């Protein structure tokens, strides 16, 4: 009997309705190399958690919900950073595709093991890519990391022609201005298969988790992003998109 | 016949068969809601007066009671709301919202309700009735055994219809519109004449019943003539079809005060008449909507006189005027018509309301635009419930309707003996305590061994549990047989039975409350290592659980299988005994709002629940136990078997916050359609949907005046949130609201 790989799982949300098309089973995987200032899931940072599951267990669990997901839903691997456990992720994706389940990768495009990346993208139907920032400096400020891995991932996605949803968190006084949105639009132009761009208003619902974990929260003085203003920026972005 | 001009089909013309008429004549509608119209001037005027009266009623609880005349089909003068603006007429009494005194179920109930709202029955009526007439309640208590009394007193078996009208019968009221009263009388006379075999008791009883039904039909003709209509003949247009059907129902709620008096499945029937009139250009879309709006207004005004204690069981003055909508005719064609949309559109035109209890019979194959519209109205108003046509239709045929909350009945062919429910949690606690009640200490079930020792052992518990269950079921059945025999004898619903075949199939509807707690308790005993503490009487009063254990509501077979086994075990027991009128037993997992009351009277349980804490409603997982997301919770409930087990219904109430359902209205609608498709494809039976912020309910609890019309779905019906008690409101808020991170 084949031994299935084990991965560290943070939690499973059985009814995700916002992370990909249709109803999604969302697998939140453990571990992330980034330390984004607005992260609301600091409890997923460390690579190890108490819950370990095999790829087969994961897929068996997803299959239980087939009546809900078979039409146009599926599974979304999220995190943490799902690419952080590349080998395990690949096995999960392969098993899902074999079972006829639509796969979606909700990622920041980093923390992967290069040798698995091509295959991962091959077995991924949709990539939800989180754009942290569009410049190297901005990226460093927000994630505490260099942008190289993201850029390599981005080029791989273009090469594989994966369908794409792009996401950008909008944070007051950091990127909540029209100039940024216009630059963002230009940046987005490099991708071919963008189905959707979502601006997500920054919220501070993660603060209590930081306290519990004893980690300093870097955006303490920043208020949550005004939802209406964010909506206006979204409209502006969409106008810009149609203009081109 | 002139009334049937243009109608197709022959079978229904030669015998009573409304379904055959519908199948031959209705027009399926597969488009969207864009044809719908708003409220008419006349309807506005009628509804404005109602709103004022409803506001007044909300202050006192009861607006008025008729204390000089007793219940009866033709006992009241005609009543109107705003006569020149009413296109559908007829009220229970001579004034809107004036309630009827119905002493046939029991005099004590009448006296108590009148007293608590500051009314007094006219002296002669009270005296004469007591002297000359025995009530259902008197009859039942003459025949009750000591065992039954003890089980009732200790809240092991509760909510039994032994002092109030049993309800749950649905007359096929459409028959009055399609055939007229004279033809129905003729058929009943034939049925009676055919009973020429040597009498045994059942034949004598049936002959008497048919005579009562014929008298009822004659009285319905008289009642309608007071409103200047002649219902002896069939209805000749849409307005009459709706009016006749409503008169037939109105007779039911003038004569009876049954707990749930549902109206059936009428929209597609009405649609045939509406379409015929529109084709003849004698009716416009606006007028069609006006007829439906005003029909629904009438259903919103149905009232019965209840005691405050009754309200503790079933909060918010519910009447369960359940109207079933949509469903499929066969595997390919749905019964959705424009009027299915029109009925839901009343929620736009005259606002959200708890009644009538609008129930969408959902099939995977319903037209997508209708699915979307129903979901849209559900999200907007939180007043709809959804039930699985794909699992009910094979059992009940395509022409069934929901009675009360979740109980399907083939229209005109079946009827039901309502049986409330067992407090299932007490069955477990009695097993732990040698048959004694954990609150009173009474020995309720004898012959049970006392379980000793610090830790609970599942085999040992199960052995005693089975013994308690067997004896409880026997007592329960004994009680229900008595109740329904006496109800037939002293408070027979002749006006409803007149619209049902003379020899219908009877279902006896049993129920369980607290399945999630019993399942979790067995799981805790099996996997959690449960340590018992006992009080000075030696009765369990608290439980320590040493390890995490699987809980029902997480799609974990370890515990879900326990729940499935438990209900199967109960149903097996129910099948062992003869039932009154050879009824077939059915079982429901449904609590209405009584889950709060059950909790209040029940001690601590091995799943860690403390004494007096409410049960979860219906078949829902225990509040807060379902931690694996909404689909896991739904999937667990969907495992409870409907067919050949819980055919009286499995109620599930599902609450989700709007932002988790989707980012915009369109996505929310799409997602709700998918959730319903998925739940019903997983063989789930019933789903109440509330798309609400928890915070909104907290605010409404603290500032009721800000939300006068806030309606939400609870187990099996919708209720105005303000009409719940504080305890019930807190329980609703404590339920799991699904949200994604």
Kindly report how far apart the N and C termini of chain A lie.
54 Å
CATH class of the largest domain in chain B: Alpha Beta
The CATH topology name of the largest domain in chain B reads Anaerobic Ribonucleotide-triphosphate Reductase Large Chain
How widely separated are the two ends of chain B?
64 Å
| Number of helices, where a helix is a run of at least 4 consecutive DSSP H or I residues of chain A | 9
CATH architecture of chain A: Alpha-Beta Barrel
Count of structural domains of chain A: 1
Rounded average pLDDT of chain A: 92
* Fraction in helix of chain A: 25-40%
Mean of pLDDT of chain B: 95
Level-1 CATH class name of chain A: Alpha Beta
Radius of gyration of chain B: 25 Å
Layout of secondary structure:
The complex is a heterodimer of chains A (244) and B (741).
Chain A: E1 6-16, E2 24-29, E3 52-54, H1 55-63, H2 66-69, E4 74-79, H3 86-98, E5 103-107, H4 114-122, E6 126-130, H5 136-143, H6 148-160, E7 163-170, H7 178-188, E8 194-201, H8 207-213, H9 227-243
Helix pairs in contact in A: 1-3, 3-4, 4-6, 7-9
Chain B: H1 11-14, H2 18-25, H3 41-60, E1 64-70, E2 98-101, H4 107-116, H5 123-132, H6 136-143, H7 146-153, E3 157-158, H8 174-193, H9 201-226, H10 238-255, H11 267-279, H12 285-300, H13 308-313, E4 323-326, H14 338-349, E5 358-362, H15 368-381, E6 385-388, H16 389-396, E7 400-403, E8 407-410, E9 414-418, E10 421-423, H17 424-432, H18 458-490, H19 494-497, E11 505-513, H20 515-528, E12 530-534, E13 540-545, H21 557-574, E14 584-589, H22 595-600, H23 630-638, E15 649-650, E16 653-656, H24 658-661, H25 665-681, E17 686-691, H26 694-702, E18 711-714, E19 717-720, H27 726-734, E20 737-738
Parallel strand pairs in B: 1-2, 4-5, 5-6, 9-11, 10-11, 11-14, 14-15, 16-17, 16-20
Antiparallel strand pairs in B: 3-10, 6-17, 7-8, 12-13, 18-19
Helix pairs in contact in B: 3-12, 6-18, 8-9, 8-10, 9-10, 10-11, 10-12, 11-14, 12-14, 14-15, 15-25, 17-18, 20-21, 26-27
């Amino acid at each position: 009997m084949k031994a299935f790989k084990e991965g560290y799982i943070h939690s499973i949300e059985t009814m995700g309705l916002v992370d990909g098309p249709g109803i999604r089973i969302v697998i939140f995987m453990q571990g992330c190399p980034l330390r984004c200032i607005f992260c609301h899931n600091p409890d997923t940072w460390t690579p190890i958690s108490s819950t370990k599951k095999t790829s087969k267990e994961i897929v068996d669990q997803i299959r239980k919900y087939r009546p809900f997901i078979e039409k146009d839903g599926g599974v979304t691997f999220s995190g943490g950073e799902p690419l952080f456990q590349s080998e395990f992720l690949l096995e999960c994706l392969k098993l899902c595709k074999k079972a006829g389940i639509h796969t979606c990768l909700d990622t920041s495009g980093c923390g992967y093991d290069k040798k698995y990346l091509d295959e991962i993208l091959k077995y991924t139907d949709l990539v939800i890519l989180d754009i942290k920032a569009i410049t190297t400096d901005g990226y460093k400020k927000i994630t505490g990391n260099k942008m190289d891995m993201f850029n390599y991932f981005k080029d791989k996605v273009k090469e594989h022609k994966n369908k794409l949803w792009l996401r950008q968190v909008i944070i007051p006084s950091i990127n909540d201005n029209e100039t940024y949105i216009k630059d963002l639009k230009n940046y987005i132009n490099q991708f071919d298969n963008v189905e959707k761009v979502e601006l997500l208003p920054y919220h501070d619902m993660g603060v209590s988790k930081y306290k519990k974990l004893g980690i300093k929260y870097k955006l303490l003085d920043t208020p949550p992003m005004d939802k209406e203003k964010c909506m206006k920026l979204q409209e502006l972005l969409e106008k810009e998109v149609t203009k081109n | 016949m002139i009334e049937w001009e243009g109608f197709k089909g022959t079978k229904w013309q030669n015998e009573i068969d409304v379904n055959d008429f519908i199948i031959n004549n209705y027009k399926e509608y597969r488009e969207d809601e864009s044809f719908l119209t708003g409220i008419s001037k006349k309807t506005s005027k009628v509804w404005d007066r109602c709103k004022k009266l409803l506001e007044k009623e909300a202050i006192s609880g009861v607006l008025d009671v008729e204390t000089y005349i007793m219940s009866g089909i033709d006992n009241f003068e005609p009543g109107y709301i705003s006569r020149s603006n009413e296109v559908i007429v007829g009220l229970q009494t001579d004034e809107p919202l004036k309630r009827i005194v119905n002493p046939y179920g029991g005099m004590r109930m009448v006296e108590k309700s009148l007293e608590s709202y500051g009314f007094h029955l006219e002296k002669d009526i009270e005296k004469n009735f007591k002297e000359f007439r025995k009530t259902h309640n008197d009859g039942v208590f003459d025949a009750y055994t000591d065992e039954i009394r003890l089980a009732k007193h200790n809240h092991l078996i509760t909510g039994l219809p032994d002092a109030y009208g049993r309800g749950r019968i649905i007359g096929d009221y459409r028959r009055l519109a399609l055939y007229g009263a004279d033809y129905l009388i003729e058929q009943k006379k034939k049925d009676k004449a055919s009973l020429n075999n040597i009498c045994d008791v059942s034949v004598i009883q049936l002959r008497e019943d048919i005579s009562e039904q014929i008298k009822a039909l004659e009285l319905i003709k008289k009642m309608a003539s007071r409103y200047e209509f002649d219902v002896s003949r069939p209805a000749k247009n849409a307005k009459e079809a709706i009016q006749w059907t409503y008169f037939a129902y109105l007779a039911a709620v003038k004569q009876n005060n049954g707990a749930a008096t549902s109206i059936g499945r009428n929209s597609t029937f009405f649609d045939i008449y509406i379409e015929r009139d529109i084709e003849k250009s004698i009716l416009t879309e606006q007028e069609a909507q006006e007829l439906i709006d005003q029909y629904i207004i009438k259903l919103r005004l149905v009232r019965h006189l209840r005691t405050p204690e009754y309200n503790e069981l079933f909060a918010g003055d519910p009447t369960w005027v359940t109207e079933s909508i949509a469903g499929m005719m066969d595997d390919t064609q749905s019964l959705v018509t424009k009027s299915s949309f029109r009925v839901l559109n009343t929620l736009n035109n005259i606002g959200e309301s708890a009644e009538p209890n609008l129930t969408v019979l959902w099939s995977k194959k319903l037209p997508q635009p209708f699915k979307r519209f129903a979901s849209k109205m559900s999200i907007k108003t939180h007043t709809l419930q959804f039930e699985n046509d794909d699992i009910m239709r094979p059992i009940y045929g395509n022409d069934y309707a929901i009675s009360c909350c979740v109980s399907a009945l083939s229209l005109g062919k079946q009827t039901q003996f309502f049986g409330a429910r067992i407090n299932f949690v007490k069955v477990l606690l009695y097993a732990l305590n040698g048959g004694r009640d954990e609150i009173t200490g009474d020995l309720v079930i004898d012959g049970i061994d006392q379980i000793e020792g610090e830790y609970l052992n599942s085999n040992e518990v199960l052995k005693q549990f089975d013994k308690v269950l067997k004896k409880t079921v026997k007592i329960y059945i004994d009680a229900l047989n008595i109740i329904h025999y006496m109800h037939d004898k002293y408070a027979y619903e002749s006006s409803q039975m007149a619209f049902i075949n003379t020899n219908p199939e009877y279902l006896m509807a049993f129920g369980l409350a607290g399945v999630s707690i019993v399942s979790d308790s067995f799981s805790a005993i099996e996997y959690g290592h449960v340590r018992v503490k006992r009080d000075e009487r030696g009765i369990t009063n608290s439980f320590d659980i040493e390890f995490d254990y699987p809980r029902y509501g997480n799609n974990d077979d370890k515990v879900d299988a326990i729940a499935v086994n438990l209900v199967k075990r109960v149903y097996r027991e129910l099948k062992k005994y003869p039932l009154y009128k050879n009824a077939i037993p059915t079982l429901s997992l449904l609590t209405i709002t009584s889950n709060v009351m059950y909790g209040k009277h029940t001690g601590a349980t091995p799943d860690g629940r403390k004494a007096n804490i409410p049960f979860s409603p219906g078949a829902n997982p225990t509040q807060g136990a379902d931690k694996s997301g909404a689909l896991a919770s739904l999937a667990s409930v969907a495992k409870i078997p409907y067919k050949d087990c819980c055919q009286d219904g499995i109620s599930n109430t599902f609450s989700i916050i709007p932002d988790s359902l989707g980012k915009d209205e369109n996505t929310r609608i799409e997602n709700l359609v998918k959730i319903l498709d998925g739940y019903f494809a997983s063989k789930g039976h019933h789903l109440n949907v509330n798309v609400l912020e928890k915070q909104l309910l907290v605010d409404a609890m603290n500032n009721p005046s800000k939300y006068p019309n806030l309606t939400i779905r609870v187990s099996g019906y919708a209720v105005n949130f303000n009409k719940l008690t504080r305890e019930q409101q807190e329980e609703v808020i404590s339920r799991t609201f699904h949200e994604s991170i």
